[in-house]
Design goal:
single chain; 6 helices; Rossmann fold; 11 strands; 8-stranded mixed β-sheet; binds 5-O-phosphono-beta-D-ribofuranosylamine; alpha/beta; 3-stranded antiparallel β-sheet; 2 domains
């Protein structure tokens, strides 16, 4: 029996695409629905092309974060989600939402966490003179970009790198590591307990597993 994965997006959905493509070769999960909070998100076309159900839930239609998140949860539960995947979903979620899906809610962040939480990570990594930059898939906790890391991939920062060139390379790496994390979870290899991630019952360190390509 395949697990049900629901993906939340706000935009292009290239990570969603990587997960859809990997699902075709996976015996452990299927993408059962995609939610966007933004009308016109290109990720919806990707989902529809793959015959995946979509739901547009626009945050502006709700009086506050609580009622918006309740509607998200209603749809996620209606699709019977075992795993909720945030893939470029540009809304901060309430603690109630995060707690409801604790241990089965994951996100991808474009930095080598715990470095560069928040926005504009590529520009900040270049400005800080970092030797490398990358991305991290992590369990979501109530504190922003602070949940247990699962897997991380890095690329060197070159002296002639611009935000765009670095962002492009990191984006490629995102597409490699996100499907791996989803597969680990859905095949029963990955769990979260007390704020720590475990792979095959072994605790993953402070940065998660390092992806070596
Ligand atoms: C990615 O850069 C991801 O790290 C960030 O949002 C972006 C989503 O890109 N959280 P896409 O919509 O998957 O192409």
């Amino acid at each position: 029996m395949k697990l049900s994965v629901v993906v939340l997006i706000s935009g292009s959905g290239s990570n969603l695409q990587a997960i859809i493509d990997a699902a075709a070769n996976s015996g452990s999960y299927k993408v059962s629905g995609v939610i966007s909070n933004r009308r016109g998100a290109f990720g919806f076309e990707r989902a529809q092309r793959a015959n995946i159900a979509t739901a547009l839930i626009e945050h502006q239609q709700f009086p506050d974060r609580e009622t918006f998140d309740k509607e998200l949860a209603r749809q996620i539960d209606a699709w019977g989600a075992d795993l909720v995947v945030l893939a470029g979903f540009m809304r901060i979620l309430t603690d109630q939402f995060v707690n409801r899906y604790a241990g089965r809610l994951i996100n991808i962040h474009p930095s080598l966490l715990p470095k560069f939480k928040g926005l504009d990570t590529h520009a900040r990594a270049i400005a800080a003179g970092e030797a490398e930059h990358g991305c991290t898939v992590h369990f979501v906790s109530a504190e922003l970009d602070a949940g247990a890391p699962i897997i991380q991939a890095a690329t060197p920062i070159h002296s002639d790198d611009k935000v765009e060139t670095l962002q492009q390379r990191v984006h490629q790496l995102e597409h490699c590591i996100y499907p791996i994390a989803v597969e680990w979870f859905c095949s029963g290899r990955l769990q979260e307990r007390d704020g720590l991630a475990y792979l095959d019952a072994e605790p993953l360190g402070a940065s998660g597993q390092r992806y070596e390509g």
